[in-house]
Write a structure and sequence with these properties.
The complex is a heterodimer. Helices cover 45% and strands 12% of the residues of chain A. Chain A has 18 helices and 9 strands. In chain A, helix 8 links the parallel strand 2 (122-129) and strand 3. By secondary structure, chain B is an alpha+beta fold. Chain B has helices at residues 12-22, 32-43, 48-57, 62-69, 91-95, 98-109, 154-159, and strands at 83-88, 122-127, 139-141, 144-146. In chain B, helix 1 runs antiparallel to helix 2 (32-43) and helix 3 (48-57) packs across helix 4 (62-69). Chain B is elongated. Classes of the chains: A alpha/beta, B alpha+beta. At the A-B interface, strand 3, strand 5, strand 9 and helix 14 of A face helix 2 and helix 5 of B.
């Protein structure tokens, strides 16, 4: 049994002990799935297989990938008319999984994109990559060159009539570009502002053409699904959700890092076993389970399995599956201020509640943190959180995501906020 | 008073690199971000003159291009030093002491965020999450990622850049 049987994403990285070269990738069964699909399967069969495997989008929203691909299927079949875009923007604070996949296993992304492009009928595909990801960019550029040389990319791949041109767009840097319609505007060379929906990208995306946008980790799952089948993939998960997940932990644990584990691995196991537990002298108080834009979870949730459904039922979102840990040395008010600083700065500025509301919330949090809070401030914060965060008040979900950690901080760490206001100081600071 | 050229011509290298991007795009304007990044790679930053030259080359208005240039964190519309230092201020690094590190870096370089050292060697800027949270706190100097960054490492790290 090889590591890849249980770890389709990074099993090969562990087997070879680092960067998976083209020959490493091929000798581990790489590009066999692409060959099988292009020579023996119809595009519809690939879509059906991915749908049956119940692969859900790993960028945060968890939308079923096969269903998304199906949306583009009925569109014009003119060769080369559609686009596949890989979202490799990874700017969600606390998230570092896609960097790892691109840096250490770039050919698995390329093979996933060949399969995705074939399935939806795209002959041009883009990787939208963070501008700050210099090393992943170098590895991906090299890998694309190797794949072109071997004719895994280019014309008549594997002797079929399928062609694919794969290119990288390096982002100019802005969090909102991770939102798929903002990403498409940025790909077109414009300001990265979200578009009004509908139309959704599968109907009208990049340059007005049908476009499917998938996350890096999502696409990296596809080769193994084609190789080993839908049932195998479903059986990898511990709960209702299929497959493995790259979980990550940052914060005051003994070993921060990333692990590919069965979907549904419990939070406590991630923290205590894989991350080695908290550092000496620090106690875990709360976690942001899937990046900065997810609601806090606290002690009562730590035995829950990390999957889409369970974490949603607990009032948060699994998001990217990379957790940020808040220990007992961190002031929840100041951490909320740090989070709102990020979201205020990264607002694209198009919608008023987001552009004006988030800096206002940041300022109020800074006041409370600095001992200038007034009675009634918490009610004011809650009121504004509701207004700013309500879906439908803004074009996209940037503000909604921004408010998630704030509303849950107010709920779970309320005594900290009240203490700041009552005593006009921050108990976490040394005076 | 001498006449100052408002458009500084693009070099042959800049032109050919931009054309290579335009070649696989539906129209010239779509290469706007690529063109800004290419010229910035050659010149360090995007001056008004550079902006006008790129806009002309892409057959678009300078105002529209400026709207794009100012939208993105990594396009410098002000002069920067020979090396750009960016310290992460997002939440994972915050939890691991980024605020303290930010202060130490400012002390070490003798400048505040947004400033350039008098010898033009370093410009210091804040940056959002660098996606290396297992190595927090992090910073990036030009294309080199560092983490976890400790105060005692700063002198050695900055000495690598001249």
């Amino acid at each position: 049994m090889s590591l890849q049987d249980t770890k389709p994403l990074i099993g090969r990285v562990q087997e070879v002990g680092g960067l998976v070269s083209l020959s490493d990738y091929e000798s581990g069964g790489g590009y066999a799935a692409a060959k099988k699909a292009l020579t023996q399967m119809t595009p519809t069969e690939v879509i059906d297989l991915v749908r049956e495997a119940n692969l859900r989008g790993r960028g945060g929203a968890g939308f079923p990938t096969g269903v998304k691909w199906g949306f583009a299927k009925g569109e014009p079949q003119t060769p080369g008319y559609k686009y596949l875009v890989c979202n490799g923007d990874e700017m969600e604070p606390g998230t570092f999984k896609d960097r790892y996949l691109i840096e250490f296993n770039p050919h698995s992304l390329i093979e996933g994109m060949i399969l995705g492009s074939y399935a939806i009928g795209a002959e041009k595909a883009y990787v939208f990559l963070r501008g700050e990801y210099h090393e992943p960019n170098r590895q991906l550029v090299r890998a694309i060159g190797e794949a072109r040389e071997k004719n895994y990319l280019g014309k008549s791949i594997f002797g079929s009539d399928f062609n694919l041109d794969l290119r990288i767009h390096l982002s100019g840097g802005r969090y909102i570009c991770g939102e798929e319609t903002a990403l498409l505007n940025a790909l077109e060379g414009k300001r990265g502002q979200p578009r009004y929906k509908p139309p959704f990208p599968p109907a009208s995306g990049a340059w007005g053409r049908p476009t499917i946008v998938n996350n890096v980790e999502t696409l990296c799952n596809v080769p193994a699904i084609v190789r080993n089948g839908a049932q195998w993939y479903q059986d990898l998960g511990l709960t209702e959700d299929s497959g493995t997940k790259i979980y990550g932990i940052s914060g005051r644990v003994k070993q921060p890092g990333l692990w590919e584990l069965p979907m549904g691995t419990p939070i406590r196991e991630l923290v205590d076993v894989h991350a080695g537990g908290m550092q000496k002298g620090y106690k875990l108080r709360g976690i942001l389970p899937g990046g900065a834009s997810t609601d806090y979870l606290v002690e009562e949730h730590f035995d829950l399995p990390m999957d889409y459904k369970t974490i949603q039922e607990a009032g948060s979102r699994m998001g990217t599956g990379t957790m940020i840990l808040m220990d007992d040395s961190i002031c929840p008010v100041d951490m909320a201020r740090n989070l709102q600083h990020f979201f205020a700065q990264e607002s694209c500025g198009f919608c008023t509640p987001c552009r004006e509301g988030l800096p206002w919330v940041e300022d109020l949090l800074a006041d409370i943190e600095n001992g200038k809070g007034e009675p009634g401030d918490l009610e004011l914060l809650e009121q504004n959180a509701q207004y700013i965060g309500a879906p439908g008040n803004t074009f996209c979900l940037h503000a909604t995501g921004a408010i998630e950690p704030l509303q849950s901080a107010l709920k779970y760490f309320r005594e900290d906020f009240e203490h700041h206001i009552e005593h006009k100081n921050c108990p976490y600071r040394a005076y | 008073m001498s006449t100052v050229a408002l458009i500084s011509p693009l070099s042959d290298a800049e032109r050919s690199e931009i054309e290579a991007e335009v070649a696989h795009l539906p129209d010239r304007e779509s290469a706007a971000i690529d063109a800004l990044m290419i010229v910035q790679k050659h010149r360090g930053w995007i001056s008004d003159e550079s902006l006008s030259a790129i806009a002309k080359f892409l057959e678009m208005s300078p105002a529209k291009l400026d709207g794009i240039a100012t939208f993105y964190n990594l396009i410098h519309r002000q002069r920067v030093g020979r090396n750009v230092v960016m310290v992460c201020d997002s939440v994972s690094c915050y939890v691991m002491g980024a605020d303290g590190l930010a202060q130490k870096v400012q002390d070490h370089l003798g400048i505040k965020f947004g400033e350039t050292t008098p010898d033009d060697c370093f410009t210091l800027l804040p940056i959002v999450c660098l996606g290396a949270c297992d190595r927090a706190p992090t910073m990036i100097v030009n294309e080199d990622l560092y983490g976890p960054v400790k105060e005692e490492d700063l002198a050695e790290v900055f000495s690598r850049y001249t």
